[in-house]
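Researcher: Here's the sequence for the chain we discussed earlier.
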Amino acid sequence: MELTLLGTGEPAGLPRSDCPCARCAAAVGHEARAATALLVDSTLLLDLTPGPAFAAARAGRSLSGVRQVLLSHPHDGPALEVPAGLPAPVRVPDRQELALISGHRVRALALDSPGTGYLVTGPDGERLLYLPPGAALAGTGGGVGPGGPYDVVLLDVGRRPDALARLREAGLVGAATDVLAVHLGHDMPPGPELHRRLAAAGARAVPDGTSLTVGEFHGGVDVSQLPRRTLVLGGARSGKSVEAERRLAAFPGVVYVATGGSRDGDAEWAARVAQHRERRPASWRTEETCDLVPLLERDGPPLLIDCLALWLTHTMDEVGAWDDTRWERGGSAELATRVRTLVEAVRHTPRQLVAVSNEVGSGVVPATPAGRRFRDELGRLNAAFAAECEHVLLTVAGVALPLR
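Model: Thanks. This is the structure I predict for it:
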């Protein structure tokens, strides 16, 4: 089954003609995108982009063989024109199946938002899932079935990473599934950052006009090859926690490890905790603990640890690091042992791990011996932890800069 993406952008396209934003300014060349539309085996057209005949011609395809046009958007549009010779666009009712004379079967899937998703099965059994903007399946699309995970999935990864997480949890997206991000628009960053962010979710974006054969490997992202360990560093309010959460948003069952705990009577801290909780997917589970080693040693879903600086504060409290006498008579050695034990657990963990920590080396030198001691120990912890991670990022002003 051959798939040609006539467009990969949001319904208004990218750039928008009347928009001066940075994303539109950077949308040139391969980053310019027409509204998403898919041509399957030159016989089935899913959604219409403005100027579909010209879009097909640019991709080296013709619409003359199209026998069915299906709409997915939550309204009867968005066709600006229907070229002569094309059949009238229709929408298949939810859970109904359409059999084409070409041998393709199309099943309409119910969504958790207005619109229609389509599961297309080719004559040879390859399966393609296509979802409209901002949508996720209402269920599991009828289960994995005898065919196993889908071969290709096209969806709005930028706005609905949870839709991808649900598909993974249901077994409908596996390591060999080619996940393509479509409906790309202002929600995603411009340039290389778009592709880095999608790669972290196990997805990719391709230029308009790209053709591929469903079921073949196309140099896409193999989720099994994603980095197992990632450290995200940053200063206060740099966006490090948001970046860490974003890296796991497309994966199910994440365990969020909060090392800060609760602080009775501290309203400002309670507000911070509440903000973090509201931002996290509902399917994530939270554990408030500084006992990280047992979590790292056990197999299970991905871990997000936020943050190492608070773990270090708790551990330094326990070893008496703030008392010079206790520090010199064993506290320093005990802390070093605990850090080594943690780093050893990170080295051998079977789980996907994303950890957050503060980068304090570039700040003002603390005025107190205790402050300088904490700064030095956090720098050592960050360096030891980073040495065990495949990916290390530094966030500045909400922008993630890859260090490794």
